[in-house]
Write a structure and sequence with these properties.
With 259 residues, this protein is mainly alpha-helical. The chain has ten helices and no strands. The protein has one domain (2-21, 31-258).
């Protein structure tokens, strides 16, 4: 169990390291670097959704003599709808857009920005949690090494998200220490979501393919709804596109070679 807790903490470490950039980088990331980081995060999440979540879900269903696409399709769509509902309920604000989304709330922009990243982190925490749930259940199609690879991949793409929270806060007058702490807090939802997912999965292990696909759908929603549009808006979109490809290849290679 200790190994699982360590695995759940890895994505949070990525957020913490990204948030620490507010201390070491004085002027923040320029627009091109922001596009590259967003694109890279998109590529990592797409590859993780396929090789770490959807493919194992399909393989599990087929190993039981079921049609591999049924639970995968149902779970994927349920994950998309779940994030769609959260997107319309949770008040949030994106770094490049001053239009507030979700239910009306009298929050500061910095709080709304943190809620936006928190919303993104929910499916990532679920993804890591459901994979480690498969490890705890001794599922032959999910190994501890594959779960760690997924956790590391999520941590890599959490790095820019932590920076996206902390740097604008410091630029708007908050102390670097407070901006760093707020960035870290946005990542705490991931291990919490992971633990909740493990507890749920332990009671309905037979639906593990559905839950894996559910996490994949939730992650893809974030990529298509938020990350890709933000990376393609304005200049330097070609850099973002190449970063998507690089992130995808790196995550795919890690999963295939090490998982």
């Amino acid at each position: 169990m200790n190994k699982v807790l360590i695995g759940l903490a890895i994505p949070l470490i990525g957020t913490v390291l990204g948030s620490a950039m507010v201390i070491f980088v004085k002027k923040g990331f320029n627009e091109r670097m922001q596009k590259i980081l967003l694109g890279f995060a998109s590529g990592v999440m797409i590859a993780a959704s396929i090789w770490s979540l959807l493919q194992p879900a399909i393989d599990m269903s087929q190993s039981r003599g079921e049609a591999g696409w049924i639970q995968a399709s149902m779970g994927f769509m349920a994950g998309v709808i779940f994030l769609l509902i959260l997107d319309h309920l949770i008040p949030h604000l994106h770094a490049e857009d001053h239009k507030r989304e979700g239910l009306p709330a009298n929050f500061k922009d910095s709080t709304m920005l943190m809620l936006a990243v928190t919303l993104h982190n929910i499916p990532e925490g679920m993804a890591v949690g459901v994979v480690f749930a498969g490890v705890l259940a001794n599922n032959p199609l999910i190994t501890y090494s594959s779960a760690i690879v997924l956790a590391i991949g999520i941590a890599i793409q959490n790095f820019p998200e932590g920076a996206i929270i902390s740097m604008p806060m410091a630029a708007n007058g908050k102390s670097k220490k407070k901006a760093f702490l707020m960035g870290c807090l946005s990542g705490i939802v991931e291990p919490i979501a992971g633990i909740i997912t493990i507890l749920i999965t332990s009671t309905i292990e037979s639906n593990l393919p559905f839950l894996l696909s559910f996490a994949a759908g939730a992650m893809i929603y974030v990529v298509v709804e938020e990350l890709v549009p933000e990376s393609q808006d304005g200049e330097h979109s070609d850099w973002a596109t190449m970063a998507v490809a690089i992130g995808f290849v790196i995550m795919m290679s890690m999963d295939v070679a090490l998982g």
